[in-house]
Amino acid sequence: MKAFQIGNQQGLDSLTAITCPDPVAGPGEVLVAPRLVGLISRDVQLLRGVYGARQAPERIPVSEGVGEVIAIGAGVDNVKPGDRVVCGHFPSWLDGDFRPDVFAHDIGISHNGWLAERVVLPAAAVIQVPASLADRDVAALASAGLTAWSALVEVCKVKPGELVLCLGTGGVSLAALKLAKLRGARVAITSSSDEKLQIVRELGADITINYRKHADWAAQLMALTDNVGADVIIETGGQDTLGQSIAAAAANARIAVIGVTPGQQSPIPNYLSLILKNVTIRGIANGSRKMFIELLRATEANRIETVISKTFKFADAPAAYAYFAAQQQVGKVLIEFN
Fold this sequence. Notes:
By secondary structure, the protein is α/β, with parallel strands linked by helices. The protein folds into 2 domains: about 1-140 and about 305-335, Alpha-Beta Complex (Quinone Oxidoreductase, Chain A, domain 1); about 145-285, Rossmann fold. The protein has helices at about 40-45, 140-155, 170-180, 195-200, 215-225, 240-245, 270-275, 290-300, 315-325; strands at about 1-5, 15-20, 30-40, 65-70, 85, 120, 125-130, 165, 185-190, 205-210, 230-235, 250-260, 280-285, 310-315, 330-335. Helix 2 (about 140-155) crosses helix 3 and helix 2 packs across helix 8 (about 290-300). The longest helix has 15 residues, at about 140-155. It is globular. The model has no long low-confidence stretch (mean pLDDT about 95).
């Protein structure tokens, strides 16, 4: 099969095209032919060597996608060849509360991912995709979509009429925008680009703030909300923005901290505000298989469409990475297989 490996992790040029034998599905496993996969921030961080410990150079990256089962191992009875499936990138987290040990099997990081013509996945973790859902609407759910669902629905329990603040226009923020509107909430979004803000307004954002024009974007949000602030904050900016997120929080707000921004070392400020506002801060590490099933049901029932910026061919995966790393897009960057 053809695949891409992460190589020496010295930058985007580390992505290496290879040809290798097809993997084989062992007991309790399924062999899947990817159809459409999506890039996320950590895919770029991994190639740059700034996503935690360095991985084996032969690691195949990419954590989210949709594919077709082409073979099953012994004991597998929940799917069959020909089924379209997705899989959360923590395949051992099937249900229940988060456990730190789920990081031991992280698709695209500790184990081979979707950027190959074949990928082996644990059968217990895969989920059959409803026939009514297109590849483009499920390929990018395993990371950004599931993380947004976990944050908004499972943890923060967003309510109708509440204000959800999303930082930036990345995959998690756009997924959160869609889900928040679905649950009757209002949405505020920040960006450095007026053009991007125009796009998110068309997608349903109620409040938009250009943080280049308003460096103190928390104060701007307060001004636009009669000094009330946001009830739920999807904090994807990292340590450098957490202080303003706390400042932008309403009383009894819930802040969902998502993702890692390498190189940031800012202390967490506004300690007293956490107490005075009764703010809850919660780290979000993706979601379980059960959550993913619920997300798929919501996607199908409400015809939620993924916002897509551009789709590349599998052979052009390096160009897809470069396009994603430039951070000029609004929406997902996808890679399709023949």
